[in-house]
Amino acid sequence: MRQNSSPTTIDFMILVLLSLIWGTSYILIKKGLEVFSPAQVATLRLGISALALAPFAFRHLKKISRKDVPLLMLIGITGTGLPSFLFPFAQTELSSSLTGMLSGLTPLCTFLIAWLFFKSRDAGKRQLTGVVLGLVGAGLLAWAAPGQAGQTTQFAYAGFILLACFCYATSSNLVAAYFKEMPSLTITVTSFFLVGVPALIWALTAGAVLETAAMEVDGKGWWALTYVAALALFSTVLASIIFFKMVQRTGAIFSSMVSYIIPLVALSWGLLDGEGIGLWQIPAIVLVLTGVFLSRGK
Question: Predominant location of this chain (predicted)?
Answer without folding.
Answer: membrane
